[in-house]
Structures are given as structure tokens and as C-alpha cells.
Design brief:
The structure is a single chain. With 493 residues, the protein is mainly α. The protein folds into 2 domains: 188 residues, MFS general substrate transporter like domains (Growth Hormone, Chain: A), CATH 1.20.1250; 227 residues, Growth Hormone, Chain: A (Up-down Bundle), CATH 1.20.1250. It has 20 helices and 2 strands. Strands 1-2 form a two-stranded antiparallel sheet. Helix 13 runs parallel beside helix 15.
Length: 493
């Protein structure tokens, strides 16, 4: 049942009389919370707020990976080594970890609007600083420092943006649209990664075209900042879209952290899903290095990365719609995690075999389809199992767990590589490394934490239960309210 939009006309759907067969100790007036539920309104501007978040998420991802797809040209333009160019991307991980807790506090305490606007301004200043940071008599070293400062501002903006989907879905969307809204906002980040991998090589053919690329990313960042500053007028709609949004009383930040540390189900999700994020980061970061040893070109690795993201977005869209209708968060997550582990095992095998382009591309597609689809559902599941802890805190800590484990996994996998004396098919250049052991370790870690999640994770849907309690009140009225809700006239827009 969906109600309008910007108009605030309240629709009365509860009959004023009470049947005579209702027990005498039941109040003679309809449950007040039920009356509120039947007059909940949805505002069209929720889609605008979601659009701004999606654009902002996409822009921040393109700023993150601006230089990676054109690393050689960037190194020539900035007159630095490839290692320093890699740090322009790695700074996002380094900055995100220590600043994440402050971001979760701000989202749950200060509000959605202030957080999003601050993230939009940081994102814009970072993009502009990179473009205007031209050497004025100070040489190319200054240009690199300006680029790094711009990347750092973008990295500071990332937590403000990437932690927001669960909070926005909870405040602006009803229960039957929350998972879908979370999915749309979350998947705009990998879409930005895909766009960066397409746009950067398309714009930059020579090192002299790097300023054109920086301008191409700065213009959208300025426009999105304008939309956020002018268009987002409040952190929440005038009236709540659901019972949990109306009765939301998030625990104070420190108290929320304490509750999470005592929540067994949440801790299992924190570690196991954080490990999944780390595996996906390793896959995205090391894909080209893994495939080049067996003779696969950079172009083919790029195609596999694109398939990974595109099929991931498709899978996330399908699963988000399914979960919104069924509320089967746990079942959907466990099934998809199982298929993700199988896809990871398959990739660890086929990536070590030369001349198997079709198999490698198919496995990368399946890996993305099942793996990416877990992300928005798991974020919603983190809120369900930790309610009434703030949405930003519960989802944000999982992201931090993923970042910490990502750094750890990448270091471990690189340490496990061995240098090959010869690899006749290699397209890697001078550094020829064997990835056999690291791939098996990655598949083993993915399988181990998947098994732990399947066996040990059990939880109640605390937020849905709270909504039901707020809706129907005490159990004595359940039969009466259920019968009258079923026969109440529906109103559609």
C-alpha cells in the first residue's frame, strides 16, 4: 500500500466502530500506531535524494580510479614512478579506515543531509584541486602533491558517501522498498569503477591529455555538489515512511558500539562478510597481474573486470527486488555466498590455465553476479540483526572490517607469490610471478568464512519485529487489527 508524494492529505482507513466480539479488555478505539501506519505517506522527493546519492557515489568512484587505468601515461605526465601512481588509489583505503568511525557517528547523530553535503563538497574540492594543481615554477613534484591532496580529499569524502545507503533507505523508503533503494545506491559505486575503466583510457591517448581527463571528472563533481547543496532540504521526510522510521531511537554512538560487540550474530556477519569484501578487493586489484602470467592481455583483463561489475549489478538488482518482496535476508545471503565461494574456487583454477578465455570470462561473470548481489542485502541484514543501533554504525563497521581485511589479504597474497624463471606466454613484462599458491589461499579463505557464516549465523529480524509491534500493538488486538487491515480500502497513487 503506497501513499502520495508531496501532498500531506491523510487517508482514514480504519473503521470507527469495534465489533462486539472483541474482548472487553481490548480498547474500544483502534490502535493508534495502526492508525499511523495506515496514514504513512511516501514522498516523491525520496527518489531525488536517492539520485543525488547515486551520482555522488559514482563520481567518487571515478575520482578514486582516475589514474589506475592509465597508469603509464599518468606516471609520464607527473614524472613519478608507477609505485607513486598506485598510491593515488591506495590512499582511499588508508584514509577510510581511521575516519570511518567519525563518519558513522556523524550520520547517526548529526543527520543525513549534513553528511551528504559535506561529502559532496569534499568530493568537489578534491576533483578541482587535482585539475588546478599545475606546476607554477615548482616543477612536476608540486603537481603530484596537488594530485595526492585531491585524492586525499576524495578519500575523506568516501565514508560520508558509501555509508549512507542504509540510512537513506531507512529514513525515506518503506519496508517493501528498502532493499531496492539500498541496492541502487550501493551499486552506483561499482558503476563508477566501470565508468573510470572506460572513460580514462578513452580520453587519455598520450600523457599530455591527463588535464583533459581531470577536467572531465571535475565538472560532474561540481554539478552533483550543487544538486546536493540546493536540492536536499532535510535529513528525513516530513512524515515517516514506516513504523521503524517513526519510532527510530538509535542508541547513542558509544552505547551502540557496545551493543554490537555483544551481538554474536552481528560479529559473525562483521567478520565473514568483511572477508568477502576483502576477497572482492583482491580480485579487482590483482586481476590483471594474475591473468598476464598465462598470456592474457590487459584488454582481456579489462573485459573480465567489466563483466564482473556488469553481471554484479544485474545480480544485485534481481536479488534486491526479491528480498524486498519476501524478506528472506538470511536465506538469500547464505545461498549467494555459497555460489560465490564456488565461483571463487573455479576462478582460482581457470585463471592458472592458458588459452581459456571463454571459461575465464564466464567465471568472472558468475563471480560478480553472485558476489556483488550479496552486498546491499548484507548491509540491510546488518541493520536487521543489530536494531536499534544506528544504521550507519552497523553498516559502517562492516565496511571498515572489509577495508582492514582487504589490506591484510593483499599483503598476504603478494607475499605468497614466487618469481618464475620463465613463462613463455607472459605479457607481464619483467616481473613474472606465480599466483598459484595465492589463488588457492584466496579460495580457501573465501570457502572457510562462507562455511562459518552458513553454520553459525542465525538472527531475528529485529527491525521488522519492531515495526510489527509498533503497528499492531499488544497481542490482544492482533486478530481485530488483522481482519480490519485486510478489509480496509486501499489507496494508490
Amino acid at each position: 500500500m503506497e501513499y502520495d508524494n508531496e501532498a500531506s492529505t491523510e487517508v482514514q482507513t480504519v473503521p470507527s466502530d469495534v465489533p462486539s466480539d472483541v474482548p472487553s479488555d481490548v480498547p474500544r478505539t483502534p490502535n493508534t500506531e495502526l492508525r499511523k501506519l495506515l496514514s504513512f505517506k511516501l514522498y516523491k522527493r525520496r527518489w531525488f535524494v536517492l539520485l543525488v546519492l547515486c551520482l555522488l557515489n559514482c563520481s567518487n568512484a571515478t575520482i578514486w580510479l582516475t589514474f589506475a587505468p592509465v597508469a603509464d601515461q599518468s606516471a609520464q605526465f607527473l614524472k613519478v614512478s608507477l609505485e607513486k601512481i598506485n598510491w593515488l588509489s591506495l590512499v582511499y583505503m588508508v584514509v577510510a579506515i581511521p575516519f570511518s568511525l567519525g563518519t558513522t557517528w556523524m550520520l547517526d547523530s548529526v543527520g543525513l543531509r549534513s553528511t551528504l553535503i559535506l561529502g559532496a563538497w569534499l568530493n568537489m574540492f578534491g576533483a578541482l584541486l587535482r585539475f588546478f594543481g599545475k606546476p607554477a615554477g615548482g616543477g612536476y613534484e608540486i603537481k603530484y602533491h596537488f594530485a595526492m591532496m585531491g585524492q586525499t580529499l576524495g578519500a575523506l569524502a568516501q565514508p560520508f558517501i558509501i555509508f549512507t545507503p542504509t540510512k537513506l533507505a531507512a529514513l525515506w523508503f518503506p519496508d517493501h522498498q528498502r532493499a531496492t533503494a539500498n541496492m541502487i545506491a550501493s551499486m552506483s559505486n561499482p558503476l563508477g569503477i566501470l565508468l573510470a575503466n572506460i572513460i580514462s583510457p578513452m580520453v587519455v591517448k598520450t600523457s599530455a591529455q591527463i588535464p583533459d581527463l581531470l577536467l572531465a571528472y571535475a565538472i560532474p563533481a561540481c554539478f552533483i555538489c550543487f544538486l546536493a547543496t540546493v536540492g536536499i532540504r532535510s535529513s528525513s521526510p516530513p512524515t515517516p515512511p514506516s513504523a521503524s522510521a517513526e519510532s527510530s531511537s538509535s542508541e547513542p554512538f558509544i552505547q551502540g558500539i557496545k551493543l554490537l560487540l555483544k551481538n554474536k550474530a552481528y560479529l559473525i556477519l562483521l567478520v565473514c562478510f568483511g572477508s568477502g569484501i576483502a576477497v572482492f578487493t583482491c580480485f579487482s586489484t590483482l586481476l590483471e597481474q594474475i591473468l598476464c602470467v598465462q598470456g592474457y592481455t590487459n584488454d582481456f583483463a579489462g573485459i573480465c573486470g567489466a563483466l564482473f561489475i556488469v553481471f554484479g549489478i544485474v545480480g544485485a538488482a534481481a536479488l534486491g527486488l526479491y528480498v524486498d518482496k519476501t524478506k528472506n535476508f538470511i536465506e538469500a545471503t547464505k545461498i549467494n555466498m555459497s555460489f560465490t565461494a564456488l565461483a571463487c574456487i573455479a576462478f582460482s583454477v581457470v585463471s592458472l590455465i592458458p588459452n581459456q578465455k571463454a571459461a575465464v570470462a564466464a567465471v568472472c561473470s558468475l563471480f560478480g553476479f553472485f558476489g556483488f548481489s550479496i552486498y546491499p542485502v548484507s548491509m540491510e541484514l546488518s541493520v536487521e540483526c543489530s536494531y536499534p543501533v544506528g544504521e550507519a554504525t552497523s553498516a559502517g563497521l562492516i565496511f571498515v572490517s572489509g577495508q582492514v581485511q582487504s589490506v591484510l589479504y593483499i599483503v598476504i597474497l603478494q607475499l605468497l607469490t614466487t618469481r618464475l624463471t620463465e613463462a613463455p606466454l607472459s605479457t607481464c613484462g619483467d616481473a613474472i610471478l606465480s599466483w598459484k599458491v595465492p589463488m588457492l589461499v584466496m579460495a580457501g579463505l573465501c570457502s572457510f568464512f562462507t562455511c562459518c557464516f552458513l553454520i553459525f549465523f542465525h538472527t531475528r529480524y529485529r527491525r521488522l519485529e519492531a515495526e510489527e509491534q509498533a503497528t499492531y500493538g499488544n497481542k490482544q488486538c492482533d486478530v481485530w487489527t488483522t481482519n480490519h487491515v485486510e478489509h480496509a480500502p486501499s489507496v494508490e497513487t
